[in-house]
Amino acid sequence: MPSVTYTQPNGTQQTLQVESGTTLMRAAVNNGVDGIIGECGGQAMCATCHVYVRPEYAQALPDISDDEDEMLDCATAERTDSSRLACQIQLNAELSEIVVDIPVGQL
Amino acid sequence: MSVVIIGAGQAGLQLADSLRTEGYDGKIEVIGEEFGVPYQRPPLSKDYLAPGKEAAPLPLRGPSFFLDKHITLHAGVRALTVDRPERTVKTTEGMLEYDHLVFATGARNRMLSCPGALLPGVHGLKTLSDAEALHMALPAARNIVIIGAGFIGLEFAAAALAHGCNVTVLEFAPRPMGRALTPVMSEWFAGALRSQGISLRLDEGIERFEPGTDGRVAAAISTSGASYPADLVLVGIGVQPNDTLARDSGIETSNGIVVDETLRTADPAILAIGDCANFPSAHSLGNLRLESVQNATDQGRHAARTILGTESPYNALPWFWSTQGPYKLQMAGIPQPNDDILILGDQSEAKFSVLCFRQGILAAVESVNNAADHMAARKLLSAGTAITRNLVESEGFTLKAATREVSLVSPVP
Ligand SMILES: Cc1cc2nc3c(=O)[nH]c(=O)nc-3n(C[C@H](O)[C@H](O)[C@H](O)COP(=O)(O)OP(=O)(O)OC[C@H]3O[C@@H](n4cnc5c(N)ncnc54)[C@H](O)[C@@H]3O)c2cc1C
Ligand code: FES
Predict the structure, then answer these.
(1) Nearest CA of chain B to the CA of A77: how many Å?
(2) Most confident listed range (A68-72, B141-145, B344-348)
(3) How far apart are CA B382 and CA B410, in angstroms?
(4) B348 exposure class (CB count in 10 Å sphere: 0-12, 13-18, 19+)
(5) pLDDT of B23-59, one tens digit each?
(6) Could you give the CA distance from residue B25 to residue B191 in angstroms, rounded to a whole number?
(7) Residue B85 CB: number of other CB atoms within 10 A?
(8) What radius of gyration do chain A's Cα atoms show?
(9) Which atom from ligand 2 is nearest to the alpha carbon of A37?
(10) Which residues share a beta bridge with A98?
(11) What is the ipTM of this complex?
(12) What per-residue confidence (pLDDT) applies to B26?
């Protein structure tokens, strides 16, 4: 099963095994990972699922869509080159492992 | 100390969560009549019905939430009566005592009363089980009739189109989503829906449904006498607040449970939040009852602070979104009939915003496929920045640039 590791701003990590096809947002919400809210239910409409993807996993990711790009610009925490919306990233055979950092604030 | 929350939906769970986050260490009990893990409603009319998408509900909180935060969820339990002098709630499973009671009971679908409204094949969409029934029925459906061109009806229309169905929408009013949108936006949507192949019948209501030989719905007869073939009908004619329990306990209701600016009812031990609450709003011309995730979650957060003793008024900016096939509609603020309108962007490209000015100052923004405008509008309106019509009409103005240029006063939490 694909695995995802969420790193909190204080450094604590939580690794989840999730089914293929699950998004990083859904896996986090399903498992009560703090700091990922997902207020719009994964529609790229709220930017409350902002995460920083560790560079070594970056090239396995799908491209950023225009919607995602615009929402990231508006996220509460600073946008960097590794910023993504967790609801737009799905775990599957190509992306079976990923480590992300959770920003300090989503709202 | 104990807080009892009636309703395990978007507002109720946010309140429970925020109480803990804000340091409340008393008892928290949430009563929810629906069985299973509380879930988010918005995906039910979107991803959940889309062809080829996984039809799994999105929980509001993970299963460990209740244990970790020491919150008791009484799932599948209904609150029956409230005894205010005794400060108790009677439920289908016994009695609960409260120091603070919060109504987060949401709303229920308004029902049609015309002949045939109860025929098999006529659906509503509010709960997970409604969505499950529609998910099962959609792949085999051909001719779909939708009663009501509101958000739910039109989101469902988009899902039905994606399943290859013929879609007819009957709307009694002269324009779609007329209660919520400016006339410009609503008329743009009328055109966009029609160009996608949806048959949008405005000024036309439902008279009755007729069954086929199998006893299931087969046709919808409209107020104009026209007959539309229908093997599946969705009724989306709005909701009514669940305020009976409050009214029966002597709390004032009027299109919802009436609360003051701190979200308390006239009984200081009782609050109401979310779809069921009627509250005074600085963003509107009077009292409001809103049906949105933003309203439910922001009021949940605010009620937690009220319970913990903060007396600040609730004044979060209302915002809302709806996804209808290729169109992402986002709104910030509440348009009013007399607002002065300006359009930014290109309507023919389906990427534009409608700006609403009140006394010359920006008060609400509706956007289609323009997240940048929407998010900028949210920032500007929440911060109370005065964006004038003159400024917007100046060379090279964009809302996004304005968020950087105008020094933002930090929003009141
Ligand atoms: C299909 C659908 C799509 C939507 N799409 C969007 C969208 O795109 N964007 C958006 O912003 N909003 C959307 N909404 C609206 C949003 O989901 C609601 O505004 C929000 O859920 C309101 O939260 P709430 O807690 O007030 O009510 P709810 O989430 O409805 O929760 C209230 C709960 O209280 C329970 N209850 C009531 N009475 C009792 C009782 N006596 N005892 C025990 N339990 C009781 C109810 O069963 C219910 O589970 C959508 C709603 C639906 C139905
Ligand atoms: S969940 Fe709202 S943008 Fe990802």
Answers:
(1) 14
(2) B141-145
(3) 9
(4) exposed
(5) 999 999 999 999 999 999 999 999 899 998 778 898 8
(6) 54
(7) 5
(8) 12
(9) 1
(10) A4
(11) 0.83
(12) 97
Chain-chain contact of A43 with B46 (C-beta, under 8 angstroms): yes
**d(Cα B208, Cα B352) in Å, to the nearest integer?**
39
pLDDT digits 0-9 by tens, A82-104: 999 999 999 998 899 999 999 99
* Residue B350 touches chain A, beta carbons under 8 Å: no
pLDDT at B281: 93
Residues 6+ apart with CB under 8 A from B410: B383
Distance CA B64, CA B7 (A): 19
Residues B149, B93: Cα–Cα separation, whole Å: 40
| Residues ≥6 apart with Cβ < 8 Å to B117 | B111, B209, B235
Predicted structure pTM score: 0.94
Dmax (CA) of chain A: 33
Is residue A29 scored above 50 in pLDDT?
A: yes
- Judge contact between B220 and B206, C-beta under 8 A: yes
Task: Find out whether A5 and A98 touch, Cβ atoms under 8 Å.
Answer: yes
The pair of three-digit structure tokens given for residue A62, joined into one six-digit string: 């799908």
Q: What is the 3-state secondary structure (H, E, C) of chain A?
A: CCEEEEECCCCCEEEEECCCCCEHHHHHHHCCCCCCCCCCCCCCCCCCCEEEECHHHHHHCCCCCHHHHHHHHCCCCCCCCCEEEHHHCECCCCCCEEEEECCCCCC
**DSSP letters spanning B367-398:** EES-HHHHHHHHHHHHTT---BHHHHTSTT--
Contact yes or no for A29/A91 (Cβ under 8 A): no
Question: Within an 8 Å CB–CB cutoff, is residue B64 touching chain A?
Answer: yes
Q: How many CB pairs under 8 A join A and B?
A: 67
Query: Ligand 1: which residue has its CA nearest to atom 35?
Result: B7
Distance CA B50, CA B158 (A): 9
Could you tell me if B349 lies within 8 Å of chain A, comparing CB atoms?
no
* Cα separation, A6 vs A34, whole angstroms: 9
Query: What one-character-per-residue DSSP string does B250-286 give?
Result: T--BSSSEE--TTSB-SSTTEEE-GGGEEEE-TTSSS
Query: Is the pLDDT reported for residue B223 higher than 60?
Result: yes
| CB count in 10 Å sphere of residue A98 | 22
